[in-house]
Amino acid sequence: MPLHSLVPFVALGSVRHGVPRLGFKPQDDSVRLGTYPHQYYGKSMPYGSKDEAYKNASTLAHLTAGQALAGYALLITDLKRNLSAEASPVILFGGSYGGMLAAWMRLKYPHIAIGALASSAPVLQFEDIVPLETYYNIVSNDFRVCKYSVSLISFQSTSCFDTIKKSWDVISSVGRKVNGLDHLAKTFRLCGKLRSSDDLYNWLESAYSYLAMVDYPYPVEYEMPLPAHPIKEVCKAIDDSADGTYVLDRIFKGVSVYYNYTGKADCFEVDEDLDGMDGWDWQACTEMVMPMSSDKNSSMFPERAYNYTSYAEECLNKFDVMPRPTWITTEFGGHDYKSVLGTFGSNIIFSNGLLDPWSGGSVLENISDSVVALVTEKGAHHLDLRGATTDDLDWLVAQRASEVKLIKGWIDDYYMAKKAVFKM
Description:
With 424 residues, this protein is an alpha/beta fold. Among the domains are: 3-64 and 85-127 and 326-388, Rossmann fold; 134-259, Up-down Bundle (Four Helix Bundle (Hemerythrin (Met), subunit A)). It has helices spanning 50-53, 65-82, 97-108, 134-144, 160-175, 180-187, 197-213, 230-239, 247-259, 277-286, 308-319, 327-332, 337-344, 394-423; strands at residues 7-12, 31-36, 91-95, 115-119, 147-150, 153-156, 220-221, 225-226, 348-353, 371-376. α5 packs antiparallel against α6 (180-187) and α5 (160-175) crosses α9 (247-259). The two termini are 26 Å apart. This is Lysosomal Pro-Xaa carboxypeptidase. Its EC number is 3.4.16.2. One of its GO terms (biological process) is proteolysis. GO terms for molecular function: dipeptidyl-peptidase activity; serine-type carboxypeptidase activity.
């Protein structure tokens, strides 16, 4: 097979481990798949080590989406040259932040890649493009509609959503009492002292959010081992508690499905940095400013309004930088996205599952014949990019088949255009 006929599939790195966990693998010998890490994540560290790279704002200055895209542009160009495949088309893949990079790179470097599959890519989660309550409303709805089976009998969860909703006031009330924080730390088996009720809130909120993201139909190991349909297991644990069980004991039993499914953890760190999040904190404090609020009437979370002033103060204290909340829309767009993508965009697939809370910040309807939204009701966070299994449901198989068909069409069009130019 001549190298000039290769089709490189390039998977763009994201926050988790730097290299995407790509299960969408080409079956054609003419295709080459490469996965490339994002600088500052995983093993891709400038300055020789993570300690040096993360030393201060000056050494972190190159941790930006724009810098990542420029690096990928150079890498892909060199890759094609080294393979003597300069005329070969390139397809980009990415999930979550990697999906955002894939879509943005297709828009910013259309001469580098002929198409992009952007899975679970919240490219609209900036400024006020989508309602600020969207993310937490989707998380909440995943718990609200939870159903599970016991002895082949299906049950609608009767108390999961309501128990979580009630727990915040209990946590706040207990935390204000004398020795209340110690009581909360003991109830939730924390390894150290609890500094504030907010720390516990963030720990629980993080669990519920990730559960909504990774509510996959089969067991996975994301940051820790999880069962199939983990939200069902959380709600079952909460519902199975005996009548009269203390509300926080029920919450702990439920959240342990996420933090301690194996049962091996003796205690829990509420402020533990899960792989790569320090880097994401930097990006969130500089350019990836995604404003979110929670509404106690429409969600299971307490009322929390987005406050840019306090957000900026936290960034100044942590990194000695001020956020640029409008930079992403300035560099990559977002406002009036239908018109912009319809006029200037092509060959982009935005794939989303509606269980994923990030889907609310993505493109959920077709913009044109070649900027296409593939939406699945029961899909979770970039499920289509995970490894195919014999247990994959029909709708997931169909989604991937649609993606393959569109991508093959882009490649065919590319070669037809090349032939037409050659004949001239």
